[in-house]
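Quick illustration, no need to memorize.
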Amino acid sequence: MQELIQRRRERLGDDGPAGLDDDMYNVDPGLVTVACGPYVEPLPVGNMTVSEVRARYRDRFDIDPESQAVIDGAEVGDDTRINAGQVLAFVRRAGEKG
């Protein structure tokens, strides 16, 4: 079996050569990544509160009303405003003791 070798494409720019397909990792900075269970999607919800996002996308993401909102790893309340570029996740912790 022969191994296929992929050549590295380099782009010369102001800050030197770039790696493989750097453009595919660029995300629009005006978007917020919203996640709930298996659903993850970048959405234009910057400057909205958690409760507004929860109400608007409740059906689309199957968001549990009792789920905890987490922004960039920190638990937040429903009145917290989300900034562009952040990650908002709705998590429901099950099976925790005490």
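Residues 3 and 32 are 40 Å apart (CA to CA).
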